[in-house]
Amino acid sequence: MGKQLGQGDIDALFAAAGANASTQPEGAETEAPLEQYDFSSAGQISNDQMRAISSVNDLFARNLMHTLGAWLRTPFKMKLVAGEQLPFSEFLERLSSPNYICSIRLEPLGAVGLLELELALASPIVDVLLGGVGRAWPARELTDIEDAILTSVVQMTVQELNLAWQSVGLEFVFEKRESEAAVARMLTSGEKTLCVSFEARMPEAQGAMNICLPAVVLNAILRRLISEGDRPKRRSKEAQARVRELMGGVKFGAALQFPSMRLRASELAALEPGMVLRLPLARHSISELRVGGLQFGRAHPVRTGEHRGAQLEGGIDSDSGIGALETQSAVETMSVN
Predict the structure, then answer these.
(1) C-alpha span between 62 and 67 (Å, rounded)
(2) Given a cut of 60, is residue 244 above it in pLDDT?
(3) Of 78, 101, 138, 254, which has the fewest beta carbons less than 10 angstroms from its beta carbon?
(4) pLDDT higher than threshold 70 for residue 100
(5) Is the sign of the CA dihedral 42, 45, 49, 52 positive or negative?
C-alpha cells in the first residue's frame, strides 16, 4: 500500500514548491499563471455576439413584417424587443397558458429550439385568415382547423428565419407543435438559453413572439456571424434575381446624337428657318447612343415601324465605366424615344 499524506505533508509540499519558484534565476522561463475557471460560464454569449444576434433578428423582424403583412392584407408591425440569456427554467416560467409553442430543429447543429406565439397574437392572425377583422379571442385551446392554419403561419416564419441566418449556414426546420409537458423535458432546467422576444401589432390586437435557442450550441455559429460582419455582404441568388427583375422595369432617358464636331460661329449666326447647315461629317458616320447621359455605344439611326430606332454597331471601351459591348453579327435594333 502506498504512503498516505496527511494535511501537514501536503502543506509542506506546496511551501517547498513556492520556495523553488521564488529562487529561480532572473530570465528563466516561467509557466503561465493559472486562472480559475467557472464552469457555470460555459455557453455564455459575449457582448459582441449579442450585438450580432440583434442585427440578424432586426433583419428577421423587418422581413417577416412585410411578408406576413402582405399575406394577411392588413397592417402588421413587428419589432425586436429584447434578446437575453437566461436559464431554461426561467423561460418556462414566462410561458403563458394556454399557448402555441412548437419545436424547431437547428441544422447542422442537431439541436432543438422553441418558438412561441402568444394566443393574443395567434388568434387575431387566424381570425383574419378566416375572414374576420383580426380581433383577439378569449384565451382557449385552438381547434384543429385553427391549429392547421397557424401551422402555415409558423412555417412562413421559419422561412424568414432561414433567410436571416443563411449567411452563417444555420438552417431552421419546423417540426411540430409541442405540449407543455413535452417542452419541459426538452432541455435541463439549468441550461443556458438565448431568448429573443418580438412584439407584433395589428389593428385590433397585439402580442409577442418568443424564440428560445440553446446557447451552448450557438457559440461556433456566433463566432462565424461576427467574422461575417466584417466581410462584404453578398446577396442571395434569389435577391439578385429579384433586383434584376425590378431593374428591368426602370426607364432611362436615351438619345441618339451626333459625335462631337467643330462648326464656325459665322455659320451658326447666319442660320435662318429653311436653311440647310452642312455638317463636317462623312455620309456613313456613326452616331453615339447615350443612355442616362452616358455613352452606351455606337449606332446608326434607322426606322422600325412607326418609330425611330438605333441600330447598334459596336461597343465602347470598358474604361468608360459602362462596360464593353460585344459586336454581334446580327445587329440588335432598339427603339429610342
Answers:
(1) 9
(2) yes
(3) 138
(4) yes
(5) positive
Give φ, ψ of 143 to 5 degrees: -75, 170
The whole-number pLDDT of residue 293 equals 73
Strand partners, 255: 290
Q: How many CB atoms lie within 10 A of CB 127?
A: 20
Residues linked to residue 308 through DSSP beta bridges, in sequence order: 303
Peptide bond into 98 cis (omega under 30): yes
223-243 pLDDT, tens digit each: 666 665 544 455 667 778 888
How is residue 33 annotated by DSSP? P
- Cα-Cα-Cα-Cα torsion 170, 176, 177, 182, nearest 10 degrees, comes to -90
3-class SS shares of the chain: helix, strand, coil, % to 5: 40, 25, 35
- Cα–Cα nearest to 160, from 95, 50, 69: 69
Distance CA 319, CA 109 (A): 48
- Helix spans in the chain (H): 7-22, 47-72, 88-94, 119-129, 144-165, 180-184, 219-229, 237-248, 265-269
pLDDT, residue 115, reads: 92
Bridge partner list, 238: none
The DSSP symbol for 306 reads: T
- Residue ranges and CATH numbers for the domains of the chain are 47-232 (3.40.1550.10), 251-258+281-337 (no CATH)
51 vs 331: which has the higher pLDDT: 51
Write down the residue that cell numbers 441550461 correspond to. Answer: 191
Judged by DSSP in three states, 79 sits in strand
Predicted local confidence at residue 337, as pLDDT: 36
Sheet holding 307-314, edge to edge: 254-257, 287-291, 294-304, 307-314, 333-335
